[in-house]
């Protein structure tokens, strides 16, 4: 099966599932440090229902390590039984030890490691099936490639689960990004329908991979699509330009990504329904080529912050 974009509709065909390119990343519907349940579970469920039932989002991103487990569970509590067109992506293969391993600027050292042993991956898929309340996961990503385990063993286990009907489509996620070599190697063992990498208007090291994925009919999913405050924070580089255009800086970042390539799928996360609605409105932004050149020039002056090699 191949993947493709539909012109002027804002959709992408992921394997055999048509999804809107503006999705939602549910990671922050958890406790502090992406650990534990959300502080306000009812607000989290209300946001998910607003996104899926009222705003047309039909692509959700989560992972077994978000919570851990609680993020998948809140999606089930909010949305099960799921609409037929909803595609849920979850991920496995990354081990966490507590809330401090995902925090930036609190004097902590992250401890997030890849764990791709086949038995562990099988266990995590089974847990995700239970947490989400499904018999088959629409789209499952290897969250990290474990350098200590042969890739053939990691993907071989996931392909085996796919053949058993427990996974529909497979993808790869990387830190900071999936490389060409990794994609080529993975494609020897599995049909990869999407890759997920660090990418935004100010951090464009993955430009070649966006283009390569498009050539191969593979979706590209950016994480950190809004940077880490250097673009959209209170003193972000895009604040003045966005105000002059009558939009938000976050909307500029998202609109640029949608314009960058038709295979880009967005999963911006927020705990605010207002920000969720603003993010979706980014699909309506149309600027001239000259305006985009000016915005890219502003972002080219930024030295983007990146997480340490151990953290996302």
TrEMBL record:
Pfam families: Aldo_ket_red. InterPro entries: Aldo-Keto_reductase, NAD(P)_OxRdtase_dom_sf, NADP_OxRdtase_dom. One of its GO terms (molecular function) is oxidoreductase activity. Residues 21-298 form the NADP-dependent oxidoreductase domain. Keywords: Oxidoreductase. It comes from the Bacteria. GO terms for cellular component: cytoplasm. This is Oxidoreductase. The lineage of its organism: Bacteria, Bacillati, Actinomycetota, Actinomycetes, Pseudonocardiales.
